[in-house]
Specification:
369 residues, five-stranded mixed sheet, 16% strand
Length: 369
């Protein structure tokens, strides 16, 4: 019905007579005269039961609008003359075309979702793509957008307005929290990938006050391969939520060690932690010591810079690092020990997330690779 309301609003700009749409109960749901919307037309029920599709009565001309195998709405124009009849028929054709376009858009969207979720037979994808006039061999990229705490403003509508060209981009609502942007891969300027992500982030944050995270997959050579790009974007979001919780954009091609750790069996991870840390050692490190370790790693094991950023004397930093060595048997000033501690910390973080069951994946699936 929203499509029909838009058409009526557009018609009010050039139509010199009152026209509108009645539902099956005879209520005016859209009208060129907005004051009439919500009022009842007592003739509507009689017209709906009539054998003829086009009926002129009580100063109005009515025409039934088909909906599936039955009529559930009426188009009307004030007047019972030839002009009113012509207006009614023209508007009805327009409304019917709008409904048909909406149905076609819905079918196209359902097809693309099925491609991403691998619910389409590979051999059928090129044929259906041709039917929906979607280029099959274009290189595309999947942006998986997870939205939390959104206001009433429709995030889907915001993204559709950001990417209106359906020849290049498709915006698909996968569920209440997840939207996918399937767009042409900017192979001549790959820097545009980050620009697009930032554009999405800034607009959704500004207009909906939503908490947004974006996962980006690798380019897909054909429409069939976009399912792989979608899986990669999902994995990027999942891995990013574990190891880079402060980041809002996660790219599959920049996951680093996180991708490797995520694919390790939990049993192997537990064995590794038991080898690296004595029992209870990591848990005995207080928050101040953990912050010191974090800053020490961020500054590439540079003691002077770490001391400056923490506003502590160099001897205080040395004392804290000695304390870590005493508890864990790892000297973070040694490159090998520092790498071992960093890996073990990431493995521990991964296991904690998994144990809490807080890992989210698109479509309720676990993607490994």
């Amino acid at each position: 019905m929203e499509e029909l309301k838009k058409c009526v609003k557009e018609a009010s700009r050039f139509l010199d007579r009152v026209a509108g749409i009645l539902d099956a109960d005879g209520i005016i749901v859209a009208c060129t005269d907005e004051k009439l919307e919500g009022s009842e037309d007592p003739s509507a029920r009689t017209v709906m039961l009539a054998d003829e599709n086009l009926v002129a009565t009580y100063g109005r001309t009515y025409l039934k609008l088909p909906h599936g195998d039955r009529s559930s709405a009426l188009c009307f124009v004030d007047g019972a003359d030839t002009i009113a009849r012509n207006y009614t028929e023209l508007l009805a054709h327009w409304f019917h075309a709008a409904l048909r376009q909406r149905n076609s858009d819905a079918e196209r969207e359902a097809f693309l979702k099925n491609v991403l979720l691998e619910n389409e037979l590979p051999g059928d994808i090129p044929l259906k793509a041709r039917e929906f006039k979607i280029p099959y061999s274009s290189q595309r990229l999947a942006f998986l957008i997870r939205i939390e705490h959104a206001e009433e403003i429709d995030c889907l509508e915001i993204l559709q307005n950001l990417f209106p060209d359906r020849r290049q981009s498709h915006v698909l609502a996968m569920d209440e929290e997840t939207i996918v942007l399937l767009t042409d891969y900017p192979k001549d300027d790959v820097g545009q990938i980050d620009v697009i992500a930032r554009l999405i982030l800034d607009n959704l944050n500004a207009e909906s006050m939503a908490k947004v995270h974006i996962g980006i997959g690798m380019p897909a050579d054909t429409l069939k391969d976009t399912a792989k790009s979608y899986r990669e974007a999902s994995l990027a979001l999942t891995v990013g939520s574990i190891f880079e919780s402060d980041a809002y954009v996660m790219r599959y091609d920049k996951l680093g060690l996180g991708r490797l750790i995520y694919q390790l069996p939990p049993t192997l991870c537990h064995m590794f932690l038991d080898e690296v840390f004595p029992k209870g050692a990591y848990e005995s490190l207080d928050s101040e010591t953990l912050l010191t370790i974090q800053k020490f790693f961020e500054n590439n094991l540079n003691g002077s810079e770490t001391s400056r950023q923490l506003f502590v004397h160099r001897n205080t930093l040395v004392y804290r690092l000695d304390k870590v060595q005493k508890i864990t048997n790892l000297d973070l000033r040694s490159f090998d020990d520092a790498v071992l501690f960093k890996l073990a910390s990431m493995v521990r973080k991964y296991l904690e997330k998994q144990d809490k069951g807080t890992l989210k994946t698109a479509g309720g699936k676990w993607w490994h690779g």
